[in-house]
Design goal:
Number of helices: 13
Helix content: 40-55%
Radius of gyration: 21 Å
CATH topology of one domain: Trna Endonuclease, Chain: A, domain 1
Largest sheet: 4 strands, mixed
Strand content: 5-15%
Strand order of the largest sheet: 1-2-3-4
Shape: globular
Low-confidence stretches: 40-75, 303-318
Distance between the termini: 16 Å
Order of helices and strands: HHHHHHHHHEEEHHEHH
Length: 318
């Protein structure tokens, strides 16, 4: 029995270290290391230095249980299957621990000192991850890549489960918002005589869970206000599909989807697919986009000596 516990503890330790994390591995409960390492590194890397705020910030993992995380789903198909490198990236991205690489920021709102530290890669991993996810200059096409990934995933899920839907073209907008030449719903979903106008939004804030939740709520309410006149004229049911950069889905979006879930309550896989597959596709698109941004900086003369994460051979899962 002692030999088996030692072997399991060693494998768990190797698995944790594959993410660049370190944590003690007790022999009696080695699997608890994954949870403890996640909590310790997430709290220590993101909370303020003020000790008075740490008890509140340490509860963020508990507050995330109301959302549907990409870690809670099973690998059902190619859309939800992560390679070792993709999963490692998703975890480090969720912990805001991406390794900085030199990047030239041309955003006028970025302070000069931060520009210097970005170009020299002299920036903390947490600050670098947050800046890369929210800066329009450094992120380049990241915003559109993850948005298109979410829209495409929703369409594929609806088509697979028998929903009649179509994606509205960005070049030829026929159902734009009143008074606007562009913009409008991304997907029209037809079901039981009702037309749902779905607008996918990925909020760019990369702050702690409390602020992220507020940002998603604010984005949802903003979309509902923008579509107020549109809904009156078209009789469409507006359904903003709001997500965070980590793949968390806004509670308001879940509430808006309940009528569809209720009609198809016998199709238990639809609820799981329409939530999990867009999450996974968005995270995989983010991984590919950031790696492409890294390559673009290298081709443009920015020397890169440290990769975002170091690929390693597959490690045995505990």
């Amino acid at each position: 029995m002692s030999f088996l516990l030692d072997q399991r503890a060693r494998r768990v330790k190797e698995y944790v270290e594959s993410f660049g994390l370190t944590a003690p591995v007790p022999q009696d409960k080695p699997l608890d290391t994954l949870t403890s390492a996640w909590r310790v590194y997430w709290v220590n890397s993101c909370v303020p230095r003020d000790k008075k705020l740490r008890p509140l910030q340490a509860m963020r993992d508990v507050s995330l249980t109301r959302y549907h995380s990409f870690l809670e789903i099973l690998p059902q198909n190619n859309y939800t299957k992560f390679t070792d490198d993709e999963f490692r990236f998703a975890v480090l991205h969720r912990l805001r621990l991406l390794t900085p690489f030199p990047v030239k920021c041309s955003n006028s709102e970025t302070p000069p000192e931060l520009m210097r530290r970005l170009s020299a890669a002299e920036i903390s991993r947490t600050e670098f991850t947050g800046h890369l996810q929210s800066c329009c200059s450094c992120a380049k096409f990241l915003f559109s890549r993850r948005h298109e990934a979410v829209v495409g995933a929703i369409k594929r899920v609806c088509k697979f489960h028998g929903y009649d839907c179509r994606v509205l073209s960005h070049q030829q907008r026929t159902l734009t918002l009143p008074g606007n030449a562009r913009g409008g719903a991304d997907i029209l979903l037809y079901h039981n005589g009702t037309t749902y106008a779905m607008d996918a939004t990925v909020v760019k804030e990369t702050s702690p869970s409390e602020t992220t939740k507020n940002a998603m709520t604010k984005a949802f309410r903003k979309k509902m206000q923008q579509y107020e006149e549109y809904a009156k004229k078209t009789k469409h049911v507006v359904l903003p599909f709001v997500m965070s950069v980590y793949g968390l889905i806004a509670p308001e979006t879940l509430n808006a989807l309940r009528p569809i879930f209720r009609v198809h309550r016998t199709d238990v896989d639809f609820r799981s697919d329409v939530l999990s597959i867009p999450q996974c596709c968005m995270l995989k698109a983010t991984s590919a986009a950031i790696m492409e941004i890294e390559s673009m900086n290298k081709l443009n003369g920015m020397p890169i000596s440290i990769p975002i994460f170091t690929p390693s051979p597959p490690t045995p899962h505990p």
